[in-house]
Specification:
Layout (H helix, E strand, L loop, with lengths): L10 H15 L4 H4 L2 H23 L1 H26 L6 H16 L9 H17 L1 H9 L3 H26 L6 H25 L3 H24 L13
Helix pairs in contact: 1-3, 1-10, 3-9, 4-5, 4-8, 5-7, 6-7, 6-8, 9-10
Length: 243
């Protein structure tokens, strides 16, 4: 049985997973299967998450965050590509400078754009600080003429940090119910539904229970694969506000 990586699903993925689970179970006679109550509890929470998610995505600040996150992702990806291109330069001094900067980037991880919003802000700030204050790295930046790239990265990261605070302020002014809070409740409701399915499957009262269990397990495996693939792919920006 595949267990969904709930803590690693983005809000949109989490919501769609629940919608897909409900689609699977809704094909059956839930009253006859004694699953109607558990299904309705999960549906109610899914509807609330859907409403909050749609409102969040419609927020002008949220869209600004997404755009700024993409901007800083492009900057750090561009910087890495620029640096690595110098690994093949005919001038040994430039290769040395490239190696110093590349090693420092690797020290912070090979997939910086895939970090959470807050983590990426901190990591990029640290890289900018190190490359502005550490003699070896500062010299390497100068040697490779990376000044404009660093300025772009810093401007994008600073703008993102400011916009993120605006997003927090906007969220705090809204009702206290958040997607994160509803996710916790929805996970409990999901597990209750699954527990009932698996209990009946164990009793062997109806083959449909085994079919539902297998279909939900397959679905979880497919969603988990998306998450696993994302950890090795440095492209595509985060699409959900972490609220």
């Amino acid at each position: 049985m595949n267990t969904p990586y709930f803590t690693r699903y983005r809000h949109g993925e989490f919501l769609q997973y629940l919608v897909d689970v409900l689609t699977i179970v809704d094909k059956e006679d839930l009253n006859a299967l004694l699953l109607q109550t558990q299904r309705d509890q999960l549906q109610a929470l899914t509807d609330q998450i859907d409403d909050l998610f749609n409102r969040s995505q419609a927020s002008a600040i949220t869209q600004q965050l997404i755009a700024l996150d993409d901007r800083r992702d492009r900057a750090i990806v561009g910087i890495r590509a620029y640096i690595e291109s110098y690994q093949y330069h005919f001038d040994p001094a430039l290769v040395t400078a490239s190696t110093a900067l590349r090693n420092d980037l690797n020290r912070h991880g090979n997939n910086i754009p895939r970090l959470s919003y807050q983590e990426e802000t901190i990591v990029l700030s640290k890289i900018i600080e190190d490359w502005s204050t550490t003699t070896e790295l500062t010299n390497a930046v100068t040697a490779l003429n990376l000044g404009n790239w660093i300025t772009e990265l810093q401007d994008a990261n600073t703008a993102f940090a400011e916009s993120y605070i605006d997003r927090v302020t906007e969220t705090s002014a809204n009702p206290t119910t958040t997607i994160i809070g509803l996710r916790i409740e929805a996970i409990t409701a999901y597990r209750a539904l699954l527990a009932h399915i698996q209990a009946h499957a164990t009793l062997g009262t109806n083959a449909i229970y085994d079919e539902l269990d297998n279909q939900i397990s397959t679905l979880a495996g497919q969603y988990n694969q998306v998450v696993d693939n994302r950890t090795t792919t440095p492209t595509s920006a985060e699409d959900d506000p972490q609220t």
